[in-house]
């Protein structure tokens, strides 16, 4: 049997759920950036792989090194995307938990707190992986420029 809860009792909880909604929106923008970076990595790796048969010697080795770095970057970006998606999913679970807690007149502050901490922890892990990708991209640029810098 469904609990009897008035709309006035649920509205404050819905207001509290706006924070996680904003978090999901921000994470969505991060995901857009990360998927664009992943797409560029994949495109660049395909381009370099097509050039490999035409190259020999030092050029071949340098191109292979570039492909290796791009593959490592793609794996890091995939990890960053995984953590960002997990963060967004946890924010959605947080909203549902807030709503159900209000609906059933529960006091599950520890559960809400735990979900919120996991959500932000996942977001932090995503951002750390994103920074690792940027550092690796800078390293690849340094290798590509060689003596030009």
Features:
86% helix, mainly alpha, 4 helices, 149 residues
Please give a structural write-up:
There is one protein chain. The protein is mainly α. It has 4 helices and no strands. The chain has one domain (7-148). The chain has helices spanning 7-16, 18-51, 57-103, 109-145. It is rod-shaped. The model has no long low-confidence stretch (mean pLDDT 88).
Instruction: Tell me the radius of gyration.
Output: 23 Å
Give the tally of β-strands.
0
What composes the largest sheet? none
Helix content: over 70%
Task: Assess the beta-strand content as a share of residues.
Answer: under 5%
**On the 0-100 scale, what is the average pLDDT?**
88
Structural class by helix and strand composition:
mainly alpha
| Tally of contiguous helical segments | 4
- The backbone outline, from C-alpha atoms, is rod-shaped
Provide a brief overview of the structure.
The chain has 149 residues and is mainly α.
Write the layout of secondary structure elements.
Elements: H1 7-16, H2 18-51, H3 57-103, H4 109-145
Helix pairs in contact: 1-3, 2-3, 3-4
């Amino acid at each position: 049997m469904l609990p009897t809860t008035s709309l006035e009792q649920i509205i404050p909880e819905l207001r509290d759920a706006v924070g996680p909604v904003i978090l999901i929106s921000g994470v969505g923008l991060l995901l857009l950036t990360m998927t664009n970076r992943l797409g560029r990595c994949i495109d660049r790796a395909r381009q370099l792989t097509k050039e490999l048969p035409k190259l020999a010697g030092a050029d071949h080795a340098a191109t292979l090194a570039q492909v290796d770095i791009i593959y490592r970057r793609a794996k890091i970006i995939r990890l960053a995307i995984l953590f960002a998606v997990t963060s967004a999913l946890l924010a959605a679970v947080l909203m549902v938990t807030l709503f159900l807690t209000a609906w059933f007149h529960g006091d599950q502050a520890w559960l809400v707190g735990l979900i919120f901490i996991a959500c932000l922890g996942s977001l932090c892990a995503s951002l750390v992986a994103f920074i690792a990708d940027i550092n690796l991209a800078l390293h690849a640029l340094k290798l590509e420029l060689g003596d030009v810098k």
